[in-house]
Write a structure and sequence with these properties.
By secondary structure, the protein is an alpha/beta fold. It has helices spanning about 5-15, 20-35, 40-50, 55-70, 95-105, 125-130, 140-150, 165-175, 185-195, 220-235, 255-265, 275-290, 295-305, 305-320, 355-365, 405-415, and strands at about 85, 110-115, 135-140, 150-155, 200-210, 240-245, 255, 335-340, 345-350, 380, 390, 395-400, 415-420, 430. It has 3 domains: about 5-55, no CATH class; about 75-325, Nucleoside phosphorylase/phosphoribosyltransferase catalytic domain (Pyrimidine Nucleoside Phosphorylase, Chain A, domain 2, 3-Layer(aba) Sandwich), CATH 3.40.1030; about 335-420, Aldehyde Oxidoreductase, domain 3. The protein is built from 16 helices and 14 strands. It has a 4-stranded mixed β-sheet, sandwiched between helices.
Length: about 425
């Protein structure tokens, strides 16, 4: 049981670069949940931790303390081989929406506790909640019902007196306000305190690298992947990670409704090849780690046969939506369309991918600047890939917004750089685990 320690003492020690004890870290988490630590004190802790760092022991202790601050569901006891997958986030990353019904259609149960957008990325919950009627809130009993009925459960844990990782709900929001989103120890504790609470038997991480990732450099992504996998393994859960590319939007669409529409296209066998390769690679990893290996043929058959799409539709109905809510008129894009074209002959050499995400948020597709609601119709369609040859005037992308904005459209155009030559990055850099 954690004990309360004077916040000033803890903050002064970490600010000076000292190593916090288990009791001191436990006191931070206790103060977060009880409200005894103010937002100013918690913000100071986050900033000191981001600047001075937390070593492996501190990170493990913060993770475990946050995990123990709330419920732990231990679902693998009832659903043997239960798998989970987590992405560190990116632009157009709708892999979770596609992977989950494919695996479930193959008999591999999947639980996925998901969240909303942080920083420049859109969250899985935001995307799914753009479907009319969908209610992602669930507790352990509701999660069990979905797993029993469909073999898949995606949702946001309900916030009770304890709930899952209540400390993270507070710290997660403050990280976005304090520029500490990219701290590896804080990322690790935040992810694992939620993911480990469901009690899956196997947890695979999709750690993004490239210009649209929280950690653009491969070395940083590798360090985070190793940290996530090692601490997960320490808790007794099987774990591995794939480092995948986020140097350009993943798939053709970025935007909440548009990514749901693209998910449907993927489950109908019309998915963009790069996106589907990442989906299948991660699906194979989850199934193998869970002890139920699946061949690429079985995974593609789940799509070609229509089983994965049917299962996704059943899930939408089970959480309050309808098949009609998946129709094009209900997933309509914002009405103003602006085409971005190549201004010279050459090769698409770089995408300022993080800036793409930030600009979409500025256009209304994310929270910020006084907005509490997301415009789920704002979108970008990405027509080319890195390394592709272009002629002057060729279409690169289309932006869908509520009205013309020359300044915003000009900044979108600046995100796509055409040069004389370029090599496309690999889709999957390496496996960790």
């Amino acid at each position: 049981m954690p004990v309360a320690i004077n916040p000033y003492r803890v903050l002064a020690k970490k600010r000076a670069g000292g190593k916090l004890s288990a009791d001191e870290i436990g006191s931070v988490v206790l103060g977060t949940v009880s409200g005894d630590w103010s937002e100013a004190q918690l913000s100071a802790f986050l900033m000191a931790s981001a600047i001075q760092g937390l070593d492996l022991e501190e990170t493990r202790e913060l993770t475990v303390s946050m995990l123990r601050s709330g419920e732990q569901w231990e679902l693998a006891r009832e659903f043997p081989g239960l798998g989970d997958k987590h992405s560190t986030g990116g632009i157009g990353d709708k892999v979770s929406l596609i992977l989950t019904p494919i695996l479930a259609a193959c008999g591999q149960p999947v639980v996925m506790l998901t969240g909303r957008g942080l920083g420049h990325t859109g969250g899985t919950a935001d995307k799914l909640e753009s479907i009319d009627g969908v209610d992602l809130a669930f507790d352990r009993d509701r999660c069990r019902e979905l797993l029993s009925e469909l073999g898949m459960a995606i949702g946001v844990a309900t916030e009770g007196a304890e709930g899952i990782a209540p400390a993270d709900r507070v710290l997660y929001a403050l990280r976005d306000q304090t520029a500490t989103v990219d701290s590896l120890p804080l990322i690790t504790a935040s992810i694992l305190s939620k993911k480990l609470a469901t009690g899956a038997a196997a947890l695979v991480f999709d750690v993004k690298t490239g210009s649209g990732a929280f950690l653009p450099e491969v070395e940083e992504a590798r360090e985070l992947a190793r940290l996530l996998v090692d601490i997960t393994l320490d808790t007794g859960c099987k774990s591995s990670a794939l480092i995948t590319d986020m140097s350009q939007p993943l798939g053709e669409w970025v935007g909440h409704r548009s990514e749901v529409s693209e998910t449907l296209a993927c489950l109908q066998g019309r998915g963009e090849s790069d996106l589907m390769e990442v989906v299948y690679a991660l699906s194979e990893e989850v199934a193998a780690l869970a002890g139920r290996p699946l061949s690429r043929e079985r995974l593609t058959d789940a799509v070609d046969s229509g089983r994965a799409l049917e299962l996704f539709e059943h899930w939408v109905i089970a959480v309050g939506g309808s098949v009609e809510a998946l129709g094009p008129e209900r997933l309509a894009l914002a009405p103003h369309e602006h085409v971005l074209v190549a201004e010279r002959d050459g090769v698409l050499s770089r995408v300022e991918n993080q800036q793409v995400g930030l600009l979409l948020a500025e256009a209304g597709g994310g929270k910020g600047r006084g907005r509490s609601e997301i415009d789920t119709g704002v979108a970008l369609r990405y027509s080319v890939r890195l390394g592709q040859t272009l002629r002057q005037g060729d279409e690169i992308a289309r932006v869908y917004s509520r009205g013309p904005d020359a300044d915003l459209e000009g900044r979108f155009a600046d995100c796509f750089i055409v040069a004389e030559e370029a090599s496309p990055p690999p889709l999957v850099y390496e496996r960790v685990g």
